């Protein structure tokens, strides 16, 4: 924890100097300075990430597949070093448990296919009412393909998982996997991962956490929370698009059949049959996202140089401030009130349509998201067709939040 | 925030208190447009003379301010025009939304010209016209 | 075709000025200037691609998913414009037939899963003896999953497809798909795509071409060659990693179930069941490789600004020169002698192990590949355990080829 | 090309005409190392005294020059040494290949020091030692 007087005084301001690392924050939109409050959809990239990627392409690039030459070896080293970084980031016991994917979506699909092929008809997968489509549709598809059951754990009106209900869903011992979010991209809810994992394990189930939002904001330790699988996506973590991560316990990864077939995931290939490489390579077919892997490594270095203590403190203080300021906007209703929450706030405002809110904010340079946020069933549960959503990154300032609140007030005054 | 050039008083007032909302008793033609992306929906009912002139239009719109205002202005403009004229107007309107130019040729609808800077919202303004064109084509009635 | 005197006089030299666009070519390896002859594994990136990616991250980036704000709309525009570019590149009738994937491998796996699920037990898929593992393992996995038959079309000693044998494999009318390479990554063989497609269609089969190597070197027109599916990978086309392309005929794509589930590939989501977006989005789940898509667009612009006439002429002349020069190296044996070939040359040299060749070349700054080139069954067919492979890009010069040949002579003299 | 510091005469000659190649009649221990990546394979046979001293070693190696030369030098060095000494030497050799340093401590094997610049080839040089250590552990014999 940064104990300097400034940081102690104001954790929001403590990260202000980092804005200089994000060139895009100097852009103007519709003639107004960009206020980017859509980081939960995808975060902006610091110059450290941009430079790492362009340096790779300018000075040290080749395919990593078994090249015996210098450029290939150095590029392989650079990519494999990122596996160590990722293992360190989430407290994975072994670098070999880190599988690179395109994004969270592919990581979950990988588990749904490969671990899913080990789930027998009659068994069940449990998800929750507040899942992103990425942690919902793959399980639906598995259900329809494999004849398993899909159970949905309800949430409270505050937007928290109903743990007793989850317990009941687990009680018949038929559940093979609980797949839930570690932090909701709509409500900001942080789920009690350790308790969920304990409940799942007690019922003989494995547990997957969708950490897409969580890893951005807090230090995650997959061992501490008792996860069996953990997924996240690089572009929300200030890294490039095209790169994501699946972590899985080694014994599970080893028991699972491969997902995609091709180069690099094999040991030997004969027409009659092939044998697979060891984990994690078994799950990484074809030329990986080399440049993006290196970019992800730079993002992790960047974040770790700041430290999760400072990042979490910034986010907590900023979110508190935002909730307070938004409560002052007449007619504004924040959706959900989870006790433990991250820097994502969904809201509606009287009967002003969220799309009108988003466009009017955009005309003032403020980028937020409006819609169902890839969580249609959650919208139905909440009784809304869409929400507006502001979400924060480490570069978000108090003034930006204030600008949001003030502009929302003006927007509302247009409509009444 | 200064007076917004897109969300002008005119647009917001029409959205809040549309003049042509509701269902049309004895409509000869009806049409519907939906935007699955945001769940918006416009239903249009109209009466058409034998000669092809629109005599009355009503719309039932669930959607954002842009969509409701656009539907209501459309309804107002449609009365007394022929199907042919309205087809042309619909095309001109679409063209203006794409380019931001030609506001003077579409009457009241010219207020939506700034929408060309918000490409993903253009469909909100054209959805009523999808419904109207469907109604005029009479596809639902045959 | 560039008709300037210089180009007519020497198509190899005609592209020499483009080397300045590739910063990495100024690097040194083991104290020697880099001679990069491993472009078939992955090509180097021109500054135009590097700049397009870093400009995106610096000035115009947001997630493309349904964002209503300026940054999101502009980023969406930039990505969707690349769909048009790709359609133009390969002569696809419609932009909506272009599906973005991670690479060729994922594109083929997508077809093997989605089109594959429409193939019935008792039906067959035909591949060839010279496929890359990417166009082999997915079909093996489909065979083992779905109980279909996998047939292998043989090649001649020269390294060409045996068309009569292919005809026989098709004759019982059971073949649902012929999946073959458009250009071999080991032998350089360009396959007679149109004839293969006609044969396949006459037998009621569909045809997929693996264009990973081909699109780099010659203009491809999917309609002219009668393809049903065509795949390629961005990183070999001077573009970034993490982005590839599947083209498929619309009616096929529409008939196929989705592959991965998640955000952006859906129309509506309910727990009971979901409906899918239209093609191509049905096949693009989750946050796409946004920055890489834009990079691919820059690569295509770059290539088209040079023109395939000049690129193909350079490559043909350079390959001729290389074959001539390598023939002069004592003990060197070029593998395969296809009539129609591209700029990929595999060879062995007496009993000097290909790995020793590669390392000794590397110590002289020359990057080639040695091994089975992700084509183990082809190695068995050729009766070798590994080959050395030199492959050319548009930046490759006559002098580089000469340096290769001269260094090979010296290596051989070490061993005799 | 100047005299190459990795592919020295010594290495190439040993690879072309290894002194200790072949199978060992009456070997008390055997071991094997394979590299599935490139198909290289080393088989080692050796005789060990009760006291744990290696009296004879032979290797059958299919592989590149680095692998054959390394196997042959290993066989030469092994004779007369104890299992303990060879274990230590194997570790020192591995360490030198990783860092490029300590060539003076591994005798003839010091020629492979430049291999530390070619990480993907290090396994070629250590494969014979994998086979030797397996033989010494006697795992195949019990
Ligand atoms: C002919 C061929 N097919 C497929 C591939 C696979 O490409 P990628 O690894 O980018 O998926 C390659 C290159 O590795 C190739 O040369
Ligand atoms: C909670 C959650 N899960 C999954 C995803 C999917 O991430 P991606 O689109 O990068 O696969 C997102 C973001 O879109 C998310 O917020």
Automatic annotation (TrEMBL), chains A, C:
Uppermost EC category: transferase
Give every Aminotransferase class V domain span: 35-404
EC numbers, comma separated: 2.8.1.7
Name any one GO molecular function: pyridoxal phosphate binding
What this protein catalyses is: (sulfur carrier)-H + L-cysteine = (sulfur carrier)-SH + L-alanine
Required co-factors? pyridoxal 5'-phosphate
> By its UniProt entry, which Pfam families does this protein fall under?
Aminotran_5
GO biological process terms held by the UniProt record: cysteine metabolic process
Q: Which UniProt keywords apply?
A: Pyridoxal phosphate, Transferase
UniProt record similarity statement: Belongs to the class-V pyridoxal-phosphate-dependent aminotransferase family. Csd subfamily.
NCBIfam families according to UniProt: sufS
Stated name of the protein: cysteine desulfurase
Species whose genome carries this gene: Gluconacetobacter azotocaptans
**Which lineage is the organism of this entry classified under, starting from the top rank?**
Bacteria, Pseudomonadati, Pseudomonadota, Alphaproteobacteria, Acetobacterales
From TrEMBL, chains B, D:
Taxonomically, which superkingdom? Answer: Bacteria
Which stretches make up the NIF system FeS cluster assembly NifU N-terminal domain? Answer: 7-82
Pfam short name (any one): NifU_N
Tell me, which GO biological process terms does this entry list?
Answer: iron-sulfur cluster assembly
A Gene Ontology molecular function term for this protein is: iron ion binding
Q: Which PANTHER family match?
A: IRON-SULFUR CLUSTER ASSEMBLY ENZYME NIFU HOMOLOG
* Identification of the protein by name: SUF system NifU family Fe-S cluster assembly protein
């Amino acid at each position: 924890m940064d104990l300097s007087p400034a940081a102690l005084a104001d954790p929001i301001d403590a990260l202000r100097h980092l804005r200089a690392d994000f060139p895009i924050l100097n852009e103007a939109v519709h003639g107004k300075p960009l206020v980017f409050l859509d980081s939960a959809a995808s975060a902006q990239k610091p110059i450290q990430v941009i430079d790492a990627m362009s340096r790779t392409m300018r000075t040290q690039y080749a395919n990593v597949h078994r090249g015996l030459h210098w450029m290939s070896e150095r590029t392989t080293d650079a990519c494999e070093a990122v596996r160590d970084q990722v293992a360190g980031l989430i407290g994975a016991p072994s670098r070999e448990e880190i599988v690179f994917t395109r994004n969270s979506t592919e990581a979950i699909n990988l588990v749904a296919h490969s671990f899913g092929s080990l789930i027998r008809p009659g068994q069940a997968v449990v998800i929750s009412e507040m899942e992103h489509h990425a942690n919902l549709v793959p399980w639906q598809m598995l259900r329809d393909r494999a004849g398993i059951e899909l159970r949905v754990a309800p949430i409270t009106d505050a937007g928290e998982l109903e743990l007793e209900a989850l317990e009941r869903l687990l009680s018949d011992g038929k559940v093979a996997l609980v797949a839930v979010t570690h932090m909701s991209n709509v409500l900001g809810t942080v789920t009690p991962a350790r308790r969920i994992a304990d409940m799942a394990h007690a019922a003989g189930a494995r547990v997957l956490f969708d950490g897409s939002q969580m890893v951005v904001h807090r230090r995650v330790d997959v061992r501490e929370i008792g996860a069996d699988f953990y997924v996240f996506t690089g572009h929300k973590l200030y890294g490039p698009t095209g790169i994501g991560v699946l972590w899985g316990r080694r014994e599970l990864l080893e028991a699972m059949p491969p997902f995609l077939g091709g180069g690099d995931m094999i040991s030997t290939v004969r027409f009659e049959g092939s044998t697979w490489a060891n984990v994690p390579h078994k799950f990484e077919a074809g030329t990986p996202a080399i440049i993006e892997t290196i970019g992800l490594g730079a993002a992790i270095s960047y974040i770790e140089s700041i430290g999760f203590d400072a990042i979490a403190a910034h986010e907590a203080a900023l979110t508190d401030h935002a909730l307070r300021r938004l409560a002052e906007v007449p007619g504004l209703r924040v959706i959900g009130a989870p006790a433990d929450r991250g820097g994502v706030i969904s809201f509606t405002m009287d009967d002003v349509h969220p799309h009108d809110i988003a466009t009017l904010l955009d005309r003032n340079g403020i980028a937020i998201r409006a819609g169902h946020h890839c969580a249609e069933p959650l919208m139905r549960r909440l009784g809304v067709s869409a929400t507006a959503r502001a979400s924060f990154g480490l570069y978000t300032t108090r003034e930006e939040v204030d600008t949001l609140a003030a502009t929302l007030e003006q927007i509302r005054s247009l409509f009444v | 925030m200064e007076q917004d050039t897109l969300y002008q008083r005119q647009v917001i007032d029409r959205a809040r208190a549309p003049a042509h909302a509701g269902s049309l008793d004895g409509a000869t033609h009806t049409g519907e447009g939906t935007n699955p992306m945001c769940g918006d929906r416009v239903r249009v009912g109209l009466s058409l003379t034998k000669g092809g002139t629109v005599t009355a239009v009503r719309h039932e719109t669930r959607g954002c301010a842009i969509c409701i205002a656009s539907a209501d202005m459309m309804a107002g403009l449609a009365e007394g025009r022929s199907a042919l004229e309205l087809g042309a107007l619909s095309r001109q309107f679409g063209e203006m939304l794409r380019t931001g130019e030609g506001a003077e040729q579409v009457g009241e609808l010219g207020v939506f010209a700034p929408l060309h800077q918000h490409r993903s919202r253009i469909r909100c303004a054209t959805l009523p016209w999808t419904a109207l064109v469907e109604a005029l084509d009479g596809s639902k009635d045959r």
